[in-house]
Specification:
heterodimer, A: 251 residues, alpha/beta, Rossmann fold, 2 domains, six-stranded mixed β-sheet, four-stranded antiparallel β-sheet, B: 323 residues, mainly alpha, ABC transporter involved in vitamin B12 uptake, BtuC, 15 helices, globular
Chain lengths: 251, 323
């Protein structure tokens, strides 16, 4: 069953077209990797999906319901959660309270006492339960990323948008986070992840889509996409140079 | 019910009660009653403002506008319509809340400094409006006939009645403040304070939550305004809409700790005690606002979380004692 359908979504900021006529579907339970060079419009696309921006054109269908331009809090209520590229912890609140906000105001609209339980579970799930009582502002970057994850999961989403959760983590932390993402998928949550760390996104994703200058330039399995000359060009610039580099790599 | 017997709630209530019965214990009861009235009123006003400023993170500079609006509404009901003080006080709160709701639709879209400036604009606009409204007495305001107090058993009884009403109201404000702080609604407000966009992404219906916070923070100043001007016997635009009073409330909140239940109680008490000491000292009596200004500067620079906030940041144990 299709959980998300993006139909011809375009987002313009004045003269700049950040997302240009992007169309794709997402099956329930899938992990979709969203890649592309810096400034390709990946985060803008996320913002169009969860209602931070209203697309200039096109439609976003979530579980059969048209959610184009719905306020972000409404998309949270119907089961769409996300993390942010630049972490946004609620600094003066404790780690537990941060996750409780997600649970209280998420899909299940929990009471405070239930929210506390769920938040604790999710903190344990991402490995943050021991720090539940510290202020979120005092965490390091890796911990803040885990907290964002716990907060998004506490909302019990159907679809989780992960915006560069691996960026800024060291190798051990990346491995740990990859395990966590796999476990999330095992629970039946559908995931779209924006990621720059290629080996990670290649190993996790069922399918990849590639954006460049706001347009979708490739779609397919990780193997297919990594062989696509347009994708190689987008990342490396000159296609001839890219081809030569690939040749050298093979040799 | 379990929430009622927590130190976070009991400490501020105990402070208010101890202060409230002080005039009964001390010899010179009339003058200490007046001092305590000012003190407890400040605590209640600062606590009300704390709902929008401390919990929600919206700095309402001109918050005294609701004190003035409520005061005028109630005063008018008492003197013109001949209402009893109690319904008049409720009317004051209601009108203040209604106006906060209407204003909130417009100004709560603004953030940060723009919101703060807008609240000052509202205050000045309201003052200019009232100065030009003849049925509210225009620039000279309104007076209440002395005989009005007879209805409540004479001036002495009236003053005590207002005093105890103020004490009860202050306790109600603390209870409301505590329940907001420890509720799901309060958690949403604090999420807005920390990062409004993130809060919205997590599902907090920010426009609705902010409006409620603004209305709740306006209703009590509205009621208190009625009590205050009834006790005063007259009301005029200069007293009802005095910007520096609401700035003093901000100093009290910042001193005690914004976003805490106890902070405004502590800050209000300390600030008014300091003010009284300065006003009665021959050296400082003309400089008490200078001292307030310097104090605000020092707090913002060195202890931005206020005294209670500073204590709460020390350890999780202290966070459980001081809400």
């Amino acid at each position: 069953m299709k959980i998300l359908e993006i139909k011809h979504v375009t987002k313009r900021f004045g003269g700049l077209t950040a997302v240009n006529n992007v169309t794709f579907d997402l099956e329930e339970g899938e992990i979709l990797g969203l890649i592309g060079p810096n400034g390709a419009g990946k985060t803008t696309l996320f913002n169009c999906i969860n209602g931070v921006y209203k697309p200039t054109e096109g439609q976003v269908i979530f579980k059969g319901q048209d959610i184009t331009g719905l306020p972000t809090y409404k998309s949270a209520h119907i089961g769409l959660s996300r993390t942010h590229q630049i972490v946004r912890p609620l600094n003066e609140l404790t780690v537990l309270e941060n996750a409780m906000v997600g649970a209280c105001y998420g899909r299940e609209n929990m009471k405070l006492s239930d929210a506390r339980k769920t938040a604790m579970e999710m903190l344990a799930f991402v490995g943050m339960e021991e720090r539940f009582d510290v202020l979120a502002g005092t965490l390091n970057v890796a911990q803040k990323k885990r907290l964002e994850m716990a907060r998004a999961l506490s909302a019990k989403p159907y679809l989780l948008l992960l915006d560069e959760v691996l960026a800024g983590l060291n190798t051990a932390e990346v491995t740990h986070m990859l395990d966590t993402i796999r476990k999330i998928r095992e629970q039946g949550v559908t995931i779209i992840m924006i990621e720059h760390i290629m080996h990670a996104v290649m190993s996790l994703s069922d399918r990849l889509i590639v954006l460049n200058y706001g347009s979708l330039i490739a779609e397919g399995s990780p193997e297919e996409v990594s062989q696509n000359p347009e994708v190689i060009e987008a990342y490396l610039g000159d296609p001839d140079l890219a081809a030569r580099l690939l040749e050298e790599d093979k040799a | 019910m379990k929430r009622l017997f927590k130190p976070g709630l009991l400490i501020p209530i105990a402070i208010i009660i101890v202060l409230a019965i002080w005039p009964l214990l001390s010899g010179n009861s009339a003058s200490s009653r007046e001092a305590m009235f000012t003190l407890i009123m400040s605590m209640a006003l600062a606590s009300s403002l704390n709902i929008i400023l401390g919990y929600t993170g919206y700095v309402s500079f001109g918050h005294i506008v609701f004190f003035g609006i409520g005061g005028y509404a109630g005063f008018w009901a008492i003197t013109v319509l001949g209402w009893h003080i109690l319904p008049a006080a409720l009317l004051g709160g209601l009108i203040a809340a209604l106006i906060a709701w209407l204003l909130g639709l417009a100004v709560l879209r603004l953030r940060g400094a723009y919101f703060a400036l807008a609240t000052i604009g509202i205050l000045e606009a309201m003052k200019a409006l009232v100065v030009n409204l003849d049925f509210l007495g225009g620039p000279v305001g309104m007076e209440m006939h002395f005989s009005e107090y007879k209805r409540y058993g004479g001036p002495m009884q009236s003053l005590w009645m207002i005093y105890w009403s103020m004490v009860i109201l202050a306790i109600i404000v603390v209870v409301v403040s505590y329940f907001i702080k420890t509720s799901k609604f309060g958690l949403g407000l604090m999420a807005i304070r920390e990062d409004e966009d993130a809060a919205e992404v997590m599902g907090v219906i920010t426009p609705r939550a902010k409006t409620w916070a603004y209305v709740l923070s306006a209703v009590f100043p509205g009621i208190i305004g009625v009590l205050f001007f009834f006790k005063n016997g007259n009301i005029e635009p200069g007293d009802a809409f005095r910007l520096h009073f609401s700035i003093e409330w901000i100093v009290m909140i910042m001193l005690g700790g914004a976003g805490t239940v106890l902070g405004p109680i502590f800050g209000g008490g300390v600030y008014q005690w300091l003010r009284k000491t300065l006003l009665t000292s021959p050296l400082f009596k003309n400089y008490q606002l200078v001292v307030a200004g310097v104090m605000l500067l020092l707090i913002v620079l060195f202890v931005p979380t206020g005294v209670i906030g500073w204590l709460r940041a020390r350890s999780a144990k202290l966070r459980r004692i001081f809400e």
